[in-house]
Amino acid sequence: MRRVAETAPLTTARRLEEPAYAHKSTAPPEFRDGRTRLDYTQKSTPFIAPKEMPSLKTTPDEIVRWLGLRFRVPCDWQMVRHSKNPEKGSVVFVDRRRERLEVHWQDCSNEPDLERMVDNQRSLAKKQDPEAHTEFLRGLGNWRGLRTQSKGAVLSRAVRFDPKTQRLVDLVVSSSEDEDVSDFFPWFCRHVEVEAKGPDALRWACFDIDLTMPEGYRLRDADIKPCDASLEFEEVEAEGEARVRRRIRVRRLGLVDSWYTGDPAGLLRAQSAKLRFNEFTQLTEGTHPATEGRAVEPTTLIPRLAGRQVHARVRLWHCEPENALYEVTCSGYRSAPNWPTDLKVHCRPHDHDPGSREA
Length: 359
Prior knowledge:
seven-stranded antiparallel sheet
């Protein structure tokens, strides 16, 4: 796994000479959980010469939802770093050549002066490189934009404040001098939506996982490996404190035709070594036959008497069009929790949801 060095929002400088992911990461610990996303579907992707790469084309594209933000990116962009902090953080995307996109967010109690932020960034770019060419970008709606060209690299930046959620969003798209982003960048800004505050996010679409969570759950962990991605959520009280051990984990396993034997019960036992399964039932998840197992996590007598033994329901189904297995685990103490009726995992990402501002 290659780390991506942290690049700063509008208020600080960044290197322009080479892609940020070529350097050792200096990101704080909460930013060091992102790992390269691979294509989990078995699609043939021929090599494309650099000059023909469609990285700055608007189609084909895919929807990304992360901590209340929704945007669209070209399909060949991969998320390589992601923050789990709902109040202040960022996500970073790369393509086959370079870092392409940074999306930063921050909660603000008062609306900042966007014009001054952009002007300060322009002054900083000129101080960093007196030969840099800068221009303010117009026609971006509520966004305030700046493009900086320096030493062969071009940074297109835009910043916006959402008064409803009191979130500041900062975008940075990287390109080279011979790439035309005049159509792409306005298109990208137009498709960025602030759907909710970070802790209140219910919709998630990332790493080929697309789901709707019940209210009251927050992201606890994201474990991303090649052909194996999982998001884990923890139930929280009204004041934001995590409840005792009530969790939901959604996992997607790819390229299953190369290794899956068609034995769901055997796979659940093998994949969940810490659990002891005592019952399996057959049901339907959407249009797919599914297997659900009930299990407990073996422990000693004292935790059992104290009501701190983990009980779980694990549901597994095979989606042939996606060549993937989906595994959803609901766990808690004392007894296996009821299956949340408003938990929805979509096998074919994004096709069902055009978004609030799209036809």
